[in-house]
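Hi team,

Filling in the usual template for the complex we talked about on Friday. All components are listed, including any nucleic acid strands or ligand strings, so the model treats them as one assembly.

SUBMITTER: L.P.
PURPOSE: interface mapping
COMPONENTS: two
RESIDUES: 448
SEQUENCES:
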Amino acid sequence: MKPPVVDYLCPETVAEAVDLLGEHADGAKVLAGGQSLMPLLNMRFAYPTVLIDINRLEETAAIEPGDEVVVIGATVRQGDADQSRTVHAMVPLLAQALPHIGHFVTRNRGTIGGSVVHADPRGEVPLVMVTLGGRATVVSTSGTRTIEADDLFLSHYTTSIADDELLLDTIWPAPGGLWGYAFREFSQRHGDYALGMVACALRREDGVAKQATVAVGAVAGHPVVLDEVGAALVGEPIDERAAAEAGRLAAAAVDPSSDLHASARYRRHLVGLLTESALLAAWADTEREEA
Amino acid sequence: MIEVSVTVNGRAYEEAVAPRLLLSDFLRHTLGLTGTHVGCEHGVCGSCTVIVDDRSVRSCLMLAAQVDGAEVRTVEGLADGDELHPLQAAFRRNHALQCGFCTPGILMASVDFLERSDSPGRRQIAEMLSGHLCRCTGYEPIVESIHAVALQEGQSP
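RESULT (copied from the run log):
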């Protein structure tokens, strides 16, 4: 349970990090909080030739509120995002999800950017990003580009970020209007990987849902927006009947697999219950905003 | 090898380390501070928790090379001579340890947790403890000890 032989580089600036990454793209791994990468090294699942430690970069360590967005630097710690007033006020769905990531001690070190690039299908941050339609800014020696959340998460632990690209920040929409948000996940013990997770965002106008997004995690290789469930909710007030119906639709829309931890049938049932619960909470959240 | 200057429990060290050396092994083998215990070595059990620059971290998930310039606190730095840290005293009073393997990690996480929480209740303490595996006590005395110190701190000005 020790990391393999590896070189270690510790750039102080983004420009330096990008140059190193360009030079070593073949065998390099970027080391941020290390709460996923270090276990992979200790267990010898990963054999990079060089680690590029980005913990000393100052340019990626800030949370910046903007015009209907919040920009979160790649190396912002999950625990610091959880303590951020900006995140709580402007991206409440992310604030709801953060305490579910790992544990107090691992959130002290784990980063928002790390959760994105690791792309665990059971990751909270990717699910919230897809639900809100966030974006990622990546940089390489050939320049900077922006990737929409929908195009970012390809499959289990796989993103569309190239080997020579460094994640700089993630951009989280904070739209005006009466929005309500809810995040729900179920795991057997607090901090364990979720068996099912649901996030939803509702915009309310004239007593009905004008926009609705329901997304699920931990039931496929990447988080999935359930378009048909969202579409069925538009134009309706979200009461218990509507939420229960949406839960049935959501359960029917997913196709999880069975494993050691839970059967496919159980996971599908869980998606239904979590969807129903999340929708009622998100609707109540729009009412709170109105008051 | 990488040169590392680090302060551990107030004492300065300068050592040359291999890039892959874990912080946990650096503390135990290079510096001889064996109070930090190593359990799972993949971040699950919490035994190896230490404090780096005022934040509790898993020392098995950090490289020694990463603490260059940092201040590290381990369980050896908690007591002041023969006088136990309030958390250690509470653990002793409440029988919050049996074999003691998980204890150093729980103590270091609790020091950080109490420094940064506003009068936490049992529920928040239990949630924090979800990151630490104890196979002897059943957790109740541990929650009791941390809660007792949280209450004490709440009373002092």
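MY TAKE: Chain A has three domains: 7-53, 63-173, 179-290. Chain A touches chain B at residues 1-8, 10, 34-35, 38-39, 41-43, 51, 53, 55, 79, 99, 102-106, 108-109, 189-191 (CB under 8 Å).

Thanks, L.
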